[in-house]
């Protein structure tokens, strides 16, 4: 049962919640990795996960199990750097996590362990910032805790514990959101710049504050002109990497053109319409996830306003605009502000508990699949 009174969501309390949740996920995933698959599950292991590459192995089997799929690309960049030759397509992956892993390795720390510790620490700090942002927006303690629990239990939230960029982007956007709500635009823009060096979808925070500015102008409210400052400063993380790609290769569009190798086309409205139409003709799980978050984004836009609504809609529309729903179950982690209106909507304790438990059960299943090399996202 949900208690009638909640402790105040201080930064320290939220930080402990974030750290505790990561310890649980890390322990479960590491134990799962040591348990054998059934014969039926072995047939589902991705051929990519079976490949043996030339990268250094982790010091223990349970650590190696966390380096699946894109995590291996982050490891390659951290160990070997970006390559404009044979591994040119790795410029599709932004630099923040590999850079931090490489920096840790340069002072003698194990690159594999740091690839796990950095995202988990980033998530805990990000949850503290997100929780405080929800508290500022809602003024309600119960809503704050429920929003955090919905995010922790979300089916693909285990990716926040993997050597992926999601935690770093979450941290940056959460800090940017909190700073914006507390009216610190320069601080917000700097935090956003960190986020956009991790995930392209983080750019939509800059879009969100500008959309809010347009709304205020249209309704003849006092607009916050600093929205443009936040958007411009925030974009520097991503644009800096675009510049780096140009300086290394001579191709100013390298970061964009290599996306084709990963099944993504240049973003366009035509692609977005086509992908949304595929919901009827194909209707995969990822298509259904896309539709669910588009509807949730529209609901958020209506209930919480353009800032929160754009933060939810942006990542899924950006992904769908590239002509594919590949990794949509992971990409929607960038829509994490949706946990705020969802927490407000789930008023009945019994329904909230059922939703959280169902999410957690699915997360454990997906985590089992991930550490054994079965495609999840």
Strand and helix map with partners:
Layout: H1 11-34, H2 39-42, H3 47-50, H4 61-64, H5 70-80, H6 96-106, H7 111-138, H8 141-153, H9 166-181, H10 185-196, H11 204-218, H12 226-249, H13 254-257, H14 269-281, H15 285-304, H16 306-320, H17 328-331, H18 339-345, H19 349-371
Brief write-up:
With 377 residues, this protein is an all-alpha fold. The protein contains 19 helices and no strands. The longest helix has 28 residues, at 111-138.
Order of helices and strands: HHHHHHHHHHHHHHHHHHH
The parts where pLDDT drops under 50 for at least 5 residues are none
**Total DSSP E strands:** 0
Using the alpha-carbon principal axes, give the shape: globular
C-alpha end-to-end distance: 32 Å
Radius of gyration: 20 Å
Mean pLDDT: 95
Number of domains: 1
Which class do the helix and strand fractions yield? Answer: mainly alpha
Q: Level of helix content? A: 55-70%
**Largest β-sheet summary:** none
The amount of beta strand, in percent, is: under 5%
What does this structure look like?
- The protein has helices at residues 11-34, 39-42, 47-50, 61-64, 70-80, 96-106, 111-138, 141-153, 166-181, 185-196, 204-218, 226-249, 254-257, 269-281, 285-304, 306-320, 328-331, 339-345, 349-371.
- It is mainly alpha-helical and 377 residues long.
- The chain is globular.
- It has one domain (11-38, 60-251, 264-339, 348-371).
- It is built from 19 helices and no strands.
């Amino acid at each position: 049962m949900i208690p009638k009174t909640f402790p105040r969501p201080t930064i320290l309390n939220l930080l402990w919640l974030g750290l505790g949740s990561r310890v649980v996920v890390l322990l479960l995933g590491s134990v799962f990795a040591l348990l054998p698959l059934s014969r039926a599950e072995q047939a589902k292991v991705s051929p990519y996960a079976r490949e043996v590459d030339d990268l250094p192995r982790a010091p223990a089997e349970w650590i190696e199990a966390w380096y699946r799929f894109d995590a291996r690309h982050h490891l390659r960049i951290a160990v070997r750097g970006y390559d404009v030759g044979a591994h040119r397509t790795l410029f599709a992956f932004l630099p923040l996590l590999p850079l931090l892993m490489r920096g840790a390795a340069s002072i003698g720390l194990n690159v594999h362990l740091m690839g796990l510790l950095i995202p988990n620490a980033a998530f805990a700090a990000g949850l503290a910032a997100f929780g405080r942002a929800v508290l500022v927006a809602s003024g309600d303690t119960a809503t704050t805790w429920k929003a955090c629990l919905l995010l922790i239990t979300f089916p693909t939230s285990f990716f926040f514990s993997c050597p992926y960029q999601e935690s770093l982007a979450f941290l940056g956007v959460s800090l940017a959101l909190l700073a914006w709500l507390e009216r610190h635009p320069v601080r917000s823009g700097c935090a956003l710049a960190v986020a956009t060096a991790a995930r392209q979808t983080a750019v939509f925070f800059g879009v969100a504050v500008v959309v809010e500015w347009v709304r205020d102008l249209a309704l003849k409210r006092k607009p916050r002109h600093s929205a443009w400052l936040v958007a411009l400063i925030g974009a520097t993380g991503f644009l800096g990497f675009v510049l780096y790609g140009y300086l290394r290769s001579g191709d100013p569009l390298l970061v964009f053109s290599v996306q084709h190798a990963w099944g993504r086309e240049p973003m366009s409205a035509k692609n977005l319409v086509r992908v949304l139409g595929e919901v009827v003709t194909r209707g995969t799980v990822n298509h259904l996830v896309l539709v669910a978050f588009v509807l949730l984004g529209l609901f958020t836009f209506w209930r919480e306003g353009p800032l929160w609504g754009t933060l939810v809609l942006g990542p899924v529309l950006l992904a769908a605009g590239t002509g594919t729903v590949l990794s949509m179950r992971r990409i929607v982690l960038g829509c994490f502000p949706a946990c705020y209106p969802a927490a407000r909507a789930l008023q009945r304790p019994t329904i909230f508990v059922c939703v959280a438990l169902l999410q957690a059960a699915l997360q454990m299943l997906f985590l089992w699949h991930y550490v054994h090399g079965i495609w999840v996202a």
